[in-house]
Design a protein that fits this description.
Mean pLDDT: 88
Radius of gyration: 15 Å
Number of strands: 0
Order of helices and strands: HH
Strand content: under 5%
Largest sheet: none
Low-confidence stretches: none
Shape: rod-shaped
Helix content: over 70%
Number of domains: 1
Distance between the termini: 14 Å
Length: 68
Amino acid sequence: MTPLQISALMGQWIGAAFCLGAIIVCAAGINIEIKYKAPRGFLWLTIGMFLGMVGNFIYAIATKLVGF
């Protein structure tokens, strides 16, 4: 494996970790929204969606670098 491919594989793990974090943050936002009907629940959902976008972008670029 070339260093570029190893770096890309690590990028896939980082992208997947961002997506997992996004799921957790969105779940917290949904929980806040259900319990308190508070606008900050939407803030957590927005942050979670942004993390998911970043994670998906990193994962997609890393997958392309690996050659799949």
